[in-house]
Amino acid sequence: MSEIRLSRAVKEDRELILRWRNHPSARKNFFNAKVVSAAQHRRWYKEKLLCRDTVMYVASAGEERIGVIRFEKRGRKIDVSVNLAPEYIGKGFGSKFIALAGERYFAETKETGPIEARIKKGNIASEKAFLKAGYKKAEDLRRTVKLIGRPSDVSLCEGAICIRPLTKRHINSRYLKWLNDTNVTRFLSTRKASSKDLINFYKKAKASNNSVIFAIELRGRHIGNVKLDIDWRHNHASLGIMIGDKLQWGKGYGSRAVRLASEYCFDRLGLSVVILGVIGIHKSAIKAYKKAGFKIKGRIEDMLEFEGRRADKVIMGIDKRRFEECRP
């Protein structure tokens, strides 16, 4: 099966989505099975693209668009509707598409759910796809089956190392001590911070639609962070990492955390590429990133100021194929 990629629906997708909507194989599973006119669809589609509470993603496999999924926030819940291109129905794309789109929706919007799918009774294929994507059956009525999906509890582990979403419990004096230790921040853009600075950073990052921050934990103990800045339009993430606990340096934990963050990007969000920038003289970091599968993609000479002299910036990256080749 080809890898699925997601992109926000745009004006140019309108006619294709209408064609999928009016295909007999789709209409038989809709509560409203009538053919929608081009004028009706044009008005509806414009309204949805402009609505702040509606998010639509189009899925692609290879060069082909294969379906559309729509999330609509209604009060405390979120409705979801999915429609696959007729030629891709029954080929196993549905559950993967639903799961990827749900992860991306929660990461991009910071919503907390639940997502509610209402499926016409007898549409067994759709019901199975949502169940396989992690939804749970909530109601089985005479005409409707209702399924509920919630944000997954992201917890990825490799050996004793796990990454989990950064929470308020991680924002403490120990974390602040890392930020004010020049040995920890020597190669980072981070500088000395106050408690207020740390709290503001946390609030800003949690509210951002383009950032995801994980705490790196060693057997449950917080030892550092991984931050992802995501470009949803171009389907890639920029990664940054800090191992704040100096007792854990040189033990390979950074490489493991980078691999886990890459796994999240590729497997949970369906991104295409993960990149990072590192100062050229930081040889141990470059070695660690290579161990995680990253390759040097370029070098910008004398871009950075470091301890009174100029230094190169090295650009490194990994794509989905390379990640699979290096997967432990």
List the domain count as a whole number: 2
Name of the CATH first level of the largest domain: Alpha Beta
How many H/I helices? Answer: 11
Order of strands side by side in the largest beta sheet?
8-9-10-11-12-13-15-14
Q: Compute the CA-based radius of gyration.
A: 22 Å
Structural class: alpha+beta
Tell me what the CATH architecture of the largest domain is.
Answer: 3-Layer(aba) Sandwich
Which homologous superfamily in CATH is the superfamily of the largest domain?
Answer: Gcn5-related N-acetyltransferase (GNAT)
The topology string of helices and strands comes to: EHHHEEEHEHEEEEHHHEEEHEHEEH
In whole angstroms, the N-to-C terminal distance is 21 Å
CATH topology name of the largest domain, in short, is Aminopeptidase
Short description:
The protein is of the alpha+beta class and 328 residues long.
Describe the structure.
- This protein is of the alpha+beta class and 328 residues long.
- It folds into 2 domains: 4-149, Gcn5-related N-acetyltransferase (GNAT) (Aminopeptidase); 156-326, Gcn5-related N-acetyltransferase (GNAT) (Aminopeptidase, 3-Layer(aba) Sandwich).
- 33% of the residues lie in helices and 35% in strands.
- It contains 11 helices and 15 strands.
- The strands form 2 sheets. Strands 8-9-10-11-12-13-15-14 form an 8-stranded mixed β-sheet, with helices on both faces. It has a 7-stranded mixed β-sheet with strand order 1-2-3-4-5-7-6, sandwiched between helices.
- A hairpin with a 4-residue loop joins β11 (221-231) and β12 (236-243).
- It starts with a strand and ends with a helix.
- The model has no long low-confidence stretch (mean pLDDT 93).
